[in-house]
Amino acid sequence: MAEHRADILVIGAGIAGMTAAIYAARAGKSVAVLECEGFGGQIASSPQVENYPGIASISGADLSDALYRQASDLGVEFHFARASGVQPQPDGSFVVPGDAGNFACRSVILAAGAHHRGLDLPREQQLTGRGIGYCAVCDGAFYRGKTTAVVGGGSAALQSAEYLAGICEKVILIHRRDTFRGEAALVARVTALPNVELMLNSVVTEYLGDPKLTGLAVENKNTGARIEVAVDGVFLAVGQVPGNGPFAPPLQLDEAGYIQAGEDCKTNVPGLFAAGDCRAKTVRQLTTAAADGTVAAVAACAWADAHPAN
Ligand SMILES: Cc1cc2nc3c(=O)[nH]c(=O)nc-3n(C[C@H](O)[C@H](O)[C@H](O)COP(=O)(O)OP(=O)(O)OC[C@H]3O[C@@H](n4cnc5c(N)ncnc54)[C@H](O)[C@@H]3O)c2cc1C
After folding, report:
1. Going by DSSP bridges, is the β-strand pair 196-199/170-174 parallel, antiparallel, or unpaired?
2. Do residues 109 and 11 lie in contact, with contact meaning Cβ atoms separated by under 8 Å?
3. From the CB of 45, is ligand 1 less than 6 Å away?
4. Residue located nearest, by CA, to atom 50 of ligand 1
5. What is the chain's percent helix, strand, coil content, to nearest 5?
6. Under a CB-based contact definition with an 8 Å cutoff, are residues 203 and 219 in contact?
7. Which domains does the chain have, with CATH numbers?
8. Which of 6, 107, 119, 170 is most buried, taking the most CB atoms under 10 A from its CB?
9. Cis peptide before 211 (omega within 30 of 0)
10. Does the Cβ of 285 fall within 6 Å of ligand 1?
11. 135 is catalytic
């Protein structure tokens, strides 16, 4: 027996999910969004977004707040809850169980995004929150005037390093390759900062310190040399992993765990659509997440119209 009902249920309140909610609500549908961690998803932890069309610069938190307000004003219902599966019903509708009860809906948009990848080194979990972090904006202030490291070579790592450079005495940017994958403008800015030290062709092999992180063992991939660097904190920005496990089956995932759905956001389950970073795709950005949210919402509304509630 379902405790809650909506025409369209969106799982995940990141950019994809909130965009989908806005489109579905504007199409006249009742919309509920389930979010288990924080409204805004990944981008909420970004200090500065400079590539969203029409907005020269905005913090990820402000962008998230604006989307949340826009959706709420349209009547979208947000629930702080984790969806634990999706159950297709014989009449084309769905039941989504979760820790806030069961939601009955006519169509589901799965926009569960992705979460931070770790380095898979011993004691990583034990030291998380004790020197190991993933969000420079959230936790950078703990390291004011201290030395931190950032691991990674993409835009997220560069943004974190730039943000921390404004707070910390020194930031060591550790990257396993000799060039960065991030945007050229960002690379130029970060590499010019006087208190950012680059350690290229280098990988972290060990976390040092107990019960708090005090340093890192770093190996140079070219020479094999191992050095120990003293740091007060390290921020990992080495990519994302999807969290689609609870939804497969019925959803089909690829080898990396992403939902097999094309640009039309259609999954192998009719009436269930996938939007944003949780979907198999080549470019994971705000614009592509918003585009997916739009496509999925239009398709979900059409499905709901074709499968009216009994
Ligand atoms: C630090 C950082 C900086 C970035 N900077 C930029 C940038 O400048 N420009 C750019 O274009 N992109 C940037 N990105 C990438 C961009 O943030 C993502 O591509 C985009 O936010 C993906 O949105 P999404 O809605 O698909 O997923 P997410 O943002 O991952 O949102 C998914 C949401 O679903 C929720 N969720 C997951 N499972 C469940 C469940 N079972 N039940 C309920 N809720 C669930 C999660 O808690 C999360 O809030 C950055 C990413 C990071 C990490």
Report:
1. parallel
2. yes
3. yes
4. 43
5. 30, 30, 40
6. yes
7. 4-116+240-306 (3.50.50.60), 124-236 (3.50.50.60)
8. 107
9. yes
10. yes
11. yes
